[in-house]
Design a protein that fits this description.
single chain, Rossmann fold, Tumour Suppressor Smad4, 2 domains, 10-stranded antiparallel sheet, 10 helices, 38% strand, elongated
Length: 311
């Protein structure tokens, strides 16, 4: 019988893993897996636990939010043998689940996690030391996700992020930035920049099917928002983003295998919704097909090579 390692963050999603855990385990059993259940106690446990389990198990499945998934991927990136990774979303925004077409119902997500279809998944590397799965960003509102208290996230869900974001409106700042990408160089004042491998960022920025986002093409989508001159123009920017208009005067979308950012003063970054440190320069590199993910039905996956599970 194949072996599966179920890695659970008990603090994610109001402890929602308790609901339907029996059905999750039954799904794994029906798929021919002998399951070992393990819990994280604190941030930083998931990378170590995933790395330690990689040699012994045929599949690793993590339960939690985007941060838990990111930590698990980071752990797998430190080892040579990387089993297929499954994901059961239990967080607040679950951007990666939305991109991967994974159900928020634990039983349905378990069927996907134990399924026989996988996709190659690109992983980002920031300054050659920290991995990220779906976004590295700086500027307006990027600190909202990791500075919003966990109890508010649990009680209010996505509304907690919105309320925290509104508190930050008067404090939006801009940064002169030099951006070197595959197609050239940009220099301007920006209030936001994001290097993404996702169709959804913070549950607000959603890239439509027409933009051709792929998780395994070796390319990042880079979103840059120039500094508006008035509150009215800020409203126009928000309208453009919600309408998937990324080629306006203030909003730019480009694709690149690697991106270099240089600032006049150190700037705070976020990686996958967690604090990413303060940097005067940042390099983001795309590591193509770094891991294999079990994924569900999604428009973004239709153009991607689906691979049978050979583990």
């Amino acid at each position: 019988m194949k072996k599966l390692y179920l890695l659970i963050n008990p603090n994610a999603g109001k402890g929602g893993f308790k609901n339907g855990l029996g059905k999750v385990l039954l799904s794994f059993h029906s798929a021919g897996y002998e399951t070992t259940v393990a819990f994280t106690d604190k941030r930083g446990d998931a990378p170590r636990m995933a790395a330690e389990a990689a040699d012994e198990y045929d599949r690793i499945v993590c339960v939690g939010g985007d941060g838990t998934l990111a930590e698990t991927v980071s752990g797998l990136m430190t080892v040579e043998r990387r089993p297929v990774l499954g994901y059961i979303p239990m967080g607040t925004t679950n951007d990666c689940a939305a991109t991967l077409g994974i159900s928020h119902d634990p039983a349905q997500a378990a069927l996907t996690a134990a399924g026989d279809k996988t996709i190659p998944f690109d992983v980002g590397l920031m300054n050659r030391e920290r991995y990220f799965t779906y976004v590295a960003a700086f500027g307006a509102f990027t600190d909202v996700s990791y500075e919003t208290p966990q109890d508010q996230k649990n009680a209010l869900g996505r509304l907690a992020y919105i309320l925290e974001g509104l508190n930050r409106l008067p404090r939006i700042t801009h940064q002169w930035t030099r951006v070197e990408h595959d197609g050239g160089v940009l220099e301007d004042d920006f209030i936001f920049g994001a290097v993404t491998n996702s169709r959804s960022v913070a549950g607000v920025i959603r890239l439509s099917d027409s933009l051709g986002v792929s998780l395994s093409d070796g390319l990042f989508e880079v979103i840059l928002i120039r500094t508006p001159e008035s509150v009215l123009q800020l409203g126009t920017i928000v309208t453009d983003i919600l309408a998937n208009k990324f080629d306006s005067e203030y909003v730019t979308l480009l694709r690149s295998r690697s991106v270099n950012f240089a600032f006049r003063e150190p700037v705070a970054w976020t990686l996958d919704g967690e604090a990413g440190g303060v940097h005067a320069s940042v390099r983001c590199e795309n590591l193509p097909h770094a891991v294999r993910l079990a994924a569900g039905d999604s428009a973004v996956l239709q153009s991607m090579p689906m691979e049978p599970d050979l583990m």
